[in-house]
Amino acid sequence: MDDRRLSRALSYYLRHAPQELDLPLQPGGWVEVSELLEALGRQEIHASLEDLQRVTRNSDKQRFALEGTRMRANQGHSVPVDLGLQSQMPPAILYHGTPRTSLESILKQGLLKGQRHHVHLSSEPGTAAQVGQRRGQAVILTVRAGLMHSEGYLFYRSDNGVWLTDSVPPQFLQAPVTSD
Ligand code: HQG
After folding, report:
1. Which atom of ligand 1 sits closest to the CA of residue 130?
2. 159 in a structural domain
3. In the chain, % of residues over pLDDT 90
4. Cα four-point dihedral sign 60, 65, 66, 67
5. What residues make up the domain containing 23?
6. Is there a single domain that holds both residue 106 and residue 41?
């Protein structure tokens, strides 16, 4: 299995479907590497510790963490998991990239977390553009995170630098910049 497919499989099982591997997530989203490798093997995904280390190291967005004997996805879960993140003060402005087709609904309803645990925000517009472009022509929304924080909204920062919050009401969103 090439690294790209292994990375996809790890994202899927560690964020969304640990139960399919019969592998309960420990607090923080961790699983034992030995058990993970064995469970992957049962799915005909044959990988070694070195493969996990390489995929973790090379993940463009630092999706995974390997610590001691354990591995986890840093964020993006849809299964219940407590990542143990402390809320912190965000920068004044954060960015969210989304396909143009979602814009009207977002400006009406605000940003909603959907299947994930949080709305994902980026500190750089470039990163937000990449996220939005996954699904078509992207627009980048500016989020007045500092103002939200001063009004009591909580923000978290995942180990790989993604800013997370529960929702962003429309009054904290600013007109989008088109990315080409
Ligand atoms: C949109 C990937 C209509 C939202 C990425 C997004 C990121 C609304 C989609 C990470 C809406 C949800 C997260 C509303 C939000 N009306 N559409 N009211 N509120 N949306 O994938 O932020 O590769 O759950 O704009 O790179 O796109 O998985 O969130 O388009 O970092 O590591 O609903 O996932 O990282 O989509 O992406 P997602 P996202 P990984």
Report:
1. 26
2. yes
3. 88
4. positive
5. 3-73
6. no
- Rounded to two decimals, what is the model's pTM? 0.85
Q: Which atom of ligand 1 is nearest to the CA of 121?
A: 22
| Residue whose structure tokens are 């978290």 | 156
- Angle at which helix 49-58 crosses helix 33-42, to 10 degrees, equals 100
Does the beta carbon of 109 sit less than 6 angstroms from any atom of ligand 1?
A: yes
- The answer to whether the beta carbons of residues 13 and 21 sit under 8 Å apart is yes
Task: Determine whether the shortest distance from the Cβ of 112 to ligand 1 is under 6 A.
Answer: yes
State how far the Cα of 169 lies from the Cα of 106, in Å rounded to an integer.
9
Which two structure tokens, joined as six digits, stand for 125? 């517009």
93 CA distance to ligand 1 middle (Å): 18
Give the pLDDT confidence score for residue 56 in this predicted structure: 97
pLDDT tens figures, 38-52: 999 999 999 999 999
Domain count, the chain: 2
**Counting atoms of ligand 1 from 1, which one is nearest the CA of 120?**
22
Rounded to 5 degrees, φ, ψ at 57 are -65, -40
Query: Closest Cα to atom 33, ligand 1: which residue?
Result: 114
